[in-house]
Amino acid sequence: MIVEGLGPKSPVARRLIEVLYRKLVDHGRTDPRVRALFEDWKRVFSQVCAYKPEKLRGLEKEYGIKGKVNCEALLFAIHTYYALVMKLIAAEVAVLCTAPILRSFFGRLEEAYVAEGDEEKLAFREEFKRLEDGERFRQVGVVNFTEADYFAWYLHVWDRELAEAIWHLVRVLSDYEIGTVELEPGYVRDLFKRLYQRLVPKKVRHDLGEYYTPDWLAELVLDEVGFTVERLSELAREKGPETPFSLRLLDPACGSGTFLVLAIERLKEVVEENWELYAGRLDFVIKSITENVVGFDLNPLAVIAARANYLIQLGRTLLWARREPIEIPIYLADSILIERKPQLTGDVLVLSTSVGDFEVPAEVIEKEKLGRALSIMDECLHRGYTPEQLKAWLKRELRELSDNAIEGLAKLYDRFLELEREQKNRIWLRILKNSFAPLFKGRFDFVVGNPPWVNWESLPEGYRRRTRVLWAHYNLLPTGRGLGRVKKDIAMLFVYRCMDLYLREGGMFGFLITQTVFKSMAGTGFRNFTIPSMTRDKTTPFRVLKVHDMVELKPFEGAQNRTAIIICRLGEPTEYPVPYVLWKKAVRGEIPTDASLSEVLAMTKRYELEARPLDPEVRNSPWATLTGRAYNAVRKLIGRSAYVAHAGVYCGLNAAYWVEVLCEAPDGRLLVRNVLERAKKKVRQVEWAVEPELVYPLLRGRDVARWLARPTLYIVVPTDKHGINLPESELKVRYPGVFGFFTNFKEELKSRSIYKLAGKGGPWYGLYVDIGPYTFAPYKVVWREQAAELTCALVPPVEDRYVGKKVVIPAHKLMLVPLKDEDEAHYLCALLNSSPVRLLVKSFMVETQISTHVIERVEIDRYDPGNRIHRELVQLSKRAHELVSSGQFRELEAVEKRIDELIAELYGLTRDELEDVRVCLSILLCEDEKTDED
Q1: I need a surface site. Which of 170, 232, 299, 751 has the fewest CB within 10 A?
Q2: Cα separation of 836 and 632, whole Å?
Q3: Does residue 494 contact residue 559 with C-beta atoms inside 8 Å?
Q4: If you compute the radius of gyration of the chain from its CA atoms, what whole number of angstroms results?
Q5: 261-284 pLDDT per residue, tens
Q6: C-alpha–C-alpha distance, residues 181 and 191, integer Å
Q7: Sign of CA dihedral 376, 381, 385, 389
């Protein structure tokens, strides 16, 4: 009910967001304070997600805003609205939980709004200023709730219209029983999640890579690292009640605080189950929690949500028990990047923002004096002190600091004074304090969380430049290749950096991460599992204790992320095999994001596999994940292939090359029409007469199944039979129709990235990647790059009604092995389609990356017509192709079974080993049994 009352369709949300948006657009160019906050929000937001302005299209329709819309400003207005809702609810709950004798916060707001003679509602504004300054939270003992907050800018553009819109929000909130959240903190956490999911449309959230971590996933991670009620209670009883509360836990990418509040919930359960140990000591409990359960995040909106959830999770009992003010230990900070620069007077740490760089002497942080130094600066700013007066205060109170450090702080203070004169807000001092929090929070016994999953190429250029040294230092770059050429995910850097900076030796680590790091070439450096430390004087290994593979579950709402959980202990080398738990759904449909862990366990099956490097001699080679028995069988197939695979032709603009043939023209040319279906880049559709000599049957991924390849379209190929582009002079004279056809798309073809990179000096219509003599081989064994498993078929030349006898050209989503002999092609196809080879490839492949490299890992000998097994495989492959082409699938099973038996004989597998292979393959392909609803 409350979500509907506050959601995007509600009058209060539409009105307030529209007013905020208009005020931002009107004042964002003229008010330096508003402009600075908006610009820095864009900077920070671009670092925490795959943010680009074009990904926000559609927001304006959701909120009914007409005309030319600045979608970035609209999203900032939505974030401001959402932040305001959270702050209002948190303030009301804080008052009710800590000082019930005080008047309701909503009651104070109502009194201020109806104050007589206040046309501009300045008393109402003053209450919100106290809220945003944190005064209302400090009154109830919470000192930092609204610290480093980008969303108080609306106070600078206050007028009656804005006051009325905010008042309607307060009235709606006051109609709900906010105080009841004390009974169920999870309700509010869910409320915040659902409200944000309503305010920002699913497509925009998913385009930005924004997904909430389901509670059950976080529960599983906490279980696996040993942060359980049972273990914590055991520690309390055996080693004293202080012991479990001395353990420190960090989420370095805490988002809305899911892992943190669930950890607090477990600690509260420990108190309840062992009440005799904690009665009368709740002040110790809340003090320990707020010192030891800590979060960092770079998203300012997430930090507010996490602080609100953290505060509410503490609850009335603990908040009443505190004897001194508490700080919610969640900080707006970058967990992995704090720049350090050498200077003549000593190193400085640098925070880059939209208003410039802030430099802090490293000595101040190393001596743990930054917090006090910034407090003194804040006081000096309030009093209007000069830099010299600040220096005198610092020298008197912080005597441990050198003169160079004092001078550096004075220089920093002078920058704050300059921003004051420019009216750019005092928030920067608090942002600075938060940003350096990771440096003085110490090490932790547990580091858990769900780091951002953002591809390298989606990060801002400046952030890529500043983190490049970290990627290199932790050996996360493939040897001899540039970082931008492979699909690197920043989650990999998060794992190494957070272990290095925050985890004590012997500590436990649990992260959600993309499963591809265990299997892809981009994860080669990651699989070293060794940290060349920047903070310790040694290289420290870490042991991967377990991996949970949840790719099939797709646990994030509407996301195709390849989810895995990695559990590690720092200070020990990884030992193989690593337990690898493969999760499969036992029911149809999606796993509900609000399901409990016990419910998810009931809806899934889990298979205990083992992970090992595919090449035992290369410990960072891709992992093979199999049952132990199946591994013993397929390891006999691991080796080197006598055959080399290639990728199909890459055009860079399919809609300018792929065609359908409409008919044959009287002059012998073919009337073709370019195909726009599924084209990523649109061009105009034309019908054109072209010479048939340069038209070939085209084979796409969708045209291929096991034992079957049927071309359904054609491709215009402006090259010779060696894949060399025909020069323009020749194409114009010999093939004027083809030249005219390409002229329709000349500008689009010239703008192709591949033409700019590889086509220098070549014709603008040319093909430059993945084409060569192999493309025109008469026979090809092909497989799809994107498929659940290795899916092969043989492609012979075809006799086509329009182009005559021609070789077939595979598209770029197909891989191919070129062959001149048909029997050799059938031998290879039979071998690759066998269960043992399929299982070996399935064990280390990623379904979206079944590229040319997969057969490099398989021991495949050249075809030998004198070998009995090779000859029989040829005949079986021919028969399998005939059966599938004619739809005779019953007989096919016997043919495939015989192929498996021959492959087992060829590689020395026993009957039992072959059966182990088939069982494991059925598990990996979800063929072991029907779902419960079948």
Answers
A1: 751
A2: 12
A3: no
A4: 32
A5: 999 999 999 999 999 999 999 999
A6: 10
A7: positive
Q: Can you tell me the distance from the alpha carbon of 874 to that of 4, in angstroms, rounded to the nearest whole number?
A: 65
DSSP state of 484: G
* pLDDT for 484: 42
Q: Are 645 and 852 in contact (CB under 8 A)?
A: yes
| Integer Cα distance of 635 and 39 in angstroms | 56
d(CA 211, CA 196): 11
Helix (H, G, I), strand (E, B), or coil: what is residue 260?
helix
Residue with tokens 């740490």: 349
**394-441 pLDDT, tens per residue?**
999 999 999 999 999 999 999 999 888 887 666 888 888 888 888 888
Q: What is the DSSP string of 801-815?
A: TTTEEE--EEBTTEE
CA distance 636 to 614: 12
Mean pLDDT along residues 807-815: 97
The DSSP H or E segment spanning 782 is: strand 779-784
On whether the CB atoms of residues 794 and 881 are closer than 8 A, the answer is yes
Are the CB atoms for 890 and 880 separated by under 8 Å? no
Q: Which two tokens stand for residue 683?
A: 């061009």
pLDDT tens-digit map of 858-910: 999 999 999 999 999 999 999 999 999 999 999 999 999 999 999 999 999 99
Could you tell me the CA-to-CA distances from 852 to 28, 645, 707 in Å, in that order?
A: 52, 5, 19
Residue 258 near residue 213, CB atoms below 8 Å: yes
Q: What is the pLDDT of residues 339-391, one digit of tens each?
A: 788 877 778 888 888 888 899 999 998 888 988 998 899 899 889 899 999 99
Q: What is the residue-wise DSSP string for 41-110?
A: HHHHHHHHS---GGGGTTHHHHTT--SS--HHHHHHHHHHHHHHHHHHHHHHHHHHHH-TTSPPHHHHHH
Contact 842/819 with Cβ under 8 angstroms? no
| DSSP H helical ranges for 814-867 | 822-832, 835-844
Q: Comparing C-alpha atoms, which of 358, 357, 353, 355 is closest to residue 373?
A: 358
For the chain, the residue count is: 934
Q: CA triplet 537, 541, 546: central angle to 5 degrees?
A: 150
Domains, the chain, in order of start with CATH, read 2-204 (no CATH), 212-335+437-450 (3.40.50), 339-435 (no CATH), 646-924 (no CATH)
Helix (H) or strand (E) holding 305: helix 300-321
Cβ atoms of residues 303 and 87 within 8 Å: no
Q: Compute the C-alpha angle 53/55/58, nearest 5°.
A: 105
Tokens, residue 242: 């202080």
Alpha-carbon dihedral sign for residues 773, 779, 781, 785: positive
Angstrom distance (rounded) from CA 720 to CA 708:
28
Per-residue pLDDT tens digits for 569-603: 999 999 999 999 999 999 988 899 889 999 999 99
Q: Do the Cβ atoms of 656 and 745 come closer than 8 Å?
A: yes
Half-sphere exposure of 253 (CA within 13 A, CB side): 27
DSSP-assigned states of every residue in 515-553: GGGGTSGGGTTGGG-EEE-SSSSSEEEEEEEEEEE-TTT
Which of 573 and 485 is assigned the larger pLDDT? 573
The two structure tokens encoding residue 13 = 């949300």
Task: Report how far apart the first and last C-alpha atoms of the chain are (Å, whole number).
Answer: 36
What average pLDDT is seen over the chain? 90
What's the pLDDT score for residue 120? 78
Contact 15, 6 (CB under 8 A): no
The strand pairing partners of 251, in sequence order, are 295
DSSP string, 362-419: HHHHHTT-HHHHHHHHHHHHHHT--HHHHHHHHHHH-TTS-HHHHHHHHHHHHHHHHH
Residue 481 has pLDDT above 60, yes or no: no
Segment 739-745 mean pLDDT: 97
